[in-house]
Amino acid sequence: MAGGWAMFPLAALSIAAIYIFVERYLTIKKASRNPSDFLGRLKSLVIAGDVQGARMLCAQTNSPISRMLEKGISRIGQPLKSIEASIENVGKIEIAKLEKNLSGLATVAGAAPMLGFLGTVTGMIGAFIAIAQAEGSISPKLLSGGIYEAMVTTAAGLIIGLPAYVGYNFLVSKIDSIVHDMEYSSIEFIDLLQEPQA
C-alpha cells in the first residue's frame, strides 16, 4: 500500500506473469516429451510399408513431432512437395500453439518496470506539491512520504519485470529446442521417403 496506486496494476501484472509462465512451462514440458525410440520405430514401420501402424504410433505419441509426421504419413503416395508442405503447415500450427500467450509475458517484462517508473514520477510530483503547499520550514517527514512511494514502485516494477524477462527468454529457448527437434525429424522423414527412389 505504501507504493500508492501503481501497486495495484503491478500486482495484476505479477499474477499474470506467474500464470503465463507456469501454464506455458507445463505445456512446453509436455510437448518436449518424445520417446527416444519413436523415430526409429516409425522408420521401421514406414520401411516395412505399414502405413496404418505408423499412423497409430503417431496417434499414441502425443507430441508436436508425432502430429507433424502423422500428417506426412497420411500423404504417402502423393508428390514429395505435397508431403513436405503438409508437414510444414502442421509444424507452423504446432509452433503457434507453443508460443501462445508468450507475448503476454514479454509485455509484462517491459511494462512492469515502466509502470514502476511512472509510479516514481507521480510519487515525486506528490512530494514537490507538498513542498509547494508547505508554509515556513520544510520538514523531512513532508518529503519522505512521496519519495518512499516513488522508491517502492520502482523496486516493485523491477522485481516483477526482471523475472518475467528471464522467464520469457527461458521459455523461448525451450521452444527453440523443440523446433530444432521438429525440423530434424521432418528432414529424417523426408529422407526416408526418398530412399527407395534413390
Automatic annotation (TrEMBL):
It is a multi-pass membrane protein. Its main location: membrane. It is found in: Cell membrane; Membrane. The keyword Transmembrane helix applies. The chain crosses the membrane at residues 6-26, 102-131, 151-172. GO terms for biological process: protein import. Keywords: Cell membrane, Membrane, Protein transport, Transmembrane, Transmembrane helix, Transport. InterPro entries: ExbB/TolQ_transport (IPR050790), MotA_ExbB_proton_chnl (IPR002898). It comes from the Bacteria. Residues 61-183 form the MotA/TolQ/ExbB proton channel domain. GO terms for cellular component: plasma membrane. Belongs to the exbB/tolQ family. This is MotA/TolQ/ExbB proton channel family protein. It comes from Rufibacter immobilis.
